[in-house]
Amino acid sequence: MRITVTVDAAHADRTAEVADQLRGAGMRVDRVLDALGLVTGEVDGEHRQGLAAVEGVAGVDEQLDVSIAPPESGLQ
To answer: Per-residue pLDDT tens for 32-64?
Structure first.
């Protein structure tokens, strides 16, 4: 599943280090957004719970897909 991990304020200046720890906990990291304190990537369901226990993690959220109907559809 695709997830976004939020780094807590106390670790905001060490987002890359938190990302390394997330890798060790089973996350496949795609992007580390230092300025925002976010790490995005993928994780198997069995490892998702363990990510919240990584030091510096404030939250783990599943990314949701949003789609919009094309202009020619009757759903507009």
So the answer is: 999 999 999 999 988 888 999 999 999 999 988
Check: CB of residue 73 under 8 Å from CB of residue 67. no
Q: In what order do the strands lie in the sheet with 28-33?
A: 28-33, 38-42, 2-7, 57-62
Instruction: Give the torsion through C-alpha atoms of 21, 23, 29, 32, to 10 deg.
Output: 20
Q: What are phi and psi of 58, to 5 degrees?
A: -95, -30
- The reported pTM is 0.83
Q: Hey, what amino acid is at 53?
A: A
Map out the domains of the chain with their CATH numbers. Answer: 2-62 (3.30.70.80)
